[in-house]
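Hi all, posting the design record for the shared folder.

TITLE: backbone redesign
STEP: 1 of 1
STRUCTURE INPUT:
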């Protein structure tokens, strides 16, 4: 019952969000009060560990609810997935992220890659490639500026289909990264057949990386595996200088985490990019 109410809330929030997007003027007040609230995206910088510069951002969804405040994705992505609502919601995420990335490009700021999380149901949906092509076309974002983050467990559900899907996306020019790497069960031989460009070390391995020999061993193994497969390796959840220094000393390419910046509204990212452009 609680689940039904949550699902109904999600549906209405998506409708309200899409209705706002249909209004041309970005400064217009939201079309109508929505008792279920609305979705928005926040963006977390991804930083090159050698240069310290922002080269991309990950888009993360938030649900702002008039009564419940900001609802984190962990509370609703599962249900959106289960109910199929993730397909429409995910398409909104892709479009919104692409539109924002093309605004940053048009402002002459450093070319950024925007990364979007894609869930299993969304990835397997027949029209995924079409939907993504449509979002790129409508926003004018070059495909090379879009990256999709997928998890190993998603890819292992139907290996052949996943590889086929990934090839189509790669052909289009979109890049792919494996999220939460090490927490799922992808076989190493499968990894070889994935047309991906990046491995992301999950934050559960990063947390104790400065002190735990086991976590160090895992991170080092992922970094060297990634590099041998000619992939870039990024660590998420980097919160301390010690974690960053360990990763940098051990050749990890990129990082993301509260140490550099939490996920922020687009305007705050614009400010960071402006400051970076002056350096
Ligand atoms: P994820 O893709 O693994 O994203 C990383 C999570 O770690 C994000 O939580 C981010 O805010 C958080 N984080 C970033 N830096 C740090 C740090 O230094 N320390 C710690 N402890 N956490 C950090 P968030 O935004 O709550 O998202 C949770 C999960 O929800 C994501 O995990 C992703 O699986 C899912 N998600 C978020 N947005 C979307 C979306 O648009 N579509 C789909 N399908 N899933 C999404
Ligand atoms: Ca992610
Ligand atoms: Ca993760
Ligand atoms: Ca994830």
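Okay, here is what came back for every position:
SEQUENCE:
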């Amino acid at each position: 019952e609680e689940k039904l109410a949550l699902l109904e809330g999600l549906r209405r929030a998506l409708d309200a969000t899409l209705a706002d997007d249909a209004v041309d003027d970005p400064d217009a007040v939201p079309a109508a009060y929505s008792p279920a609230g609305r979705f928005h995206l926040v963006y977390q910088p991804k930083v090159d560990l050698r240069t310290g510069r922002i080269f991309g951002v990950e888009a993360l969804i938030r649900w702002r609810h008039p009564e419940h405040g900001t609802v984190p994705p962990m509370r609703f992505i599962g249900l959106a997935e289960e109910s199929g609502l993730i397909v429409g919601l995910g398409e909104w995420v892709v479009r919104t992220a692409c539109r924002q990335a093309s605004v940053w490009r048009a402002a002459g700021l450093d070319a950024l890659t925007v990364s979007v999380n894609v869930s299993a149901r969304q990835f397997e949906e027949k029209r995924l490639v079409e939907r993504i092509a449509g979002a790129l076309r409508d926003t004018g974002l070059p495909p090379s500026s879009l990256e999709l983050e997928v998890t190993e467990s998603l890819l292992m559900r139907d290996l052949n289909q996943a590889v086929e899907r990934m090839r189509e996306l790669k052909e289009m020019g979109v890049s792919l990264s494996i999220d939460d790497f090490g927490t799922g069960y992808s076989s190493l031989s499968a990894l070889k057949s994935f047309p991906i460009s990046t491995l992301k070390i999950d934050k559960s391995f990063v947390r104790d990386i400065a002190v735990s020999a086991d976590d160090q061993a895992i991170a080092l193994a992922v970094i060297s595996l990634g590099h041998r497969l000619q992939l870039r390796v990024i660590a998420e959840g980097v919160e301390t200088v010690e974690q960053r220094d360990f990763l940098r000393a051990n050749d990890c390419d990129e990082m993301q985490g509260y140490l550099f910046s939490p996920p922020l509204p687009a305007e705050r990212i614009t400010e960071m990019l402006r400051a970076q452009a002056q350096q």
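COMMENT: The mean pLDDT is 93.
Let me know if anyone wants the other runs.
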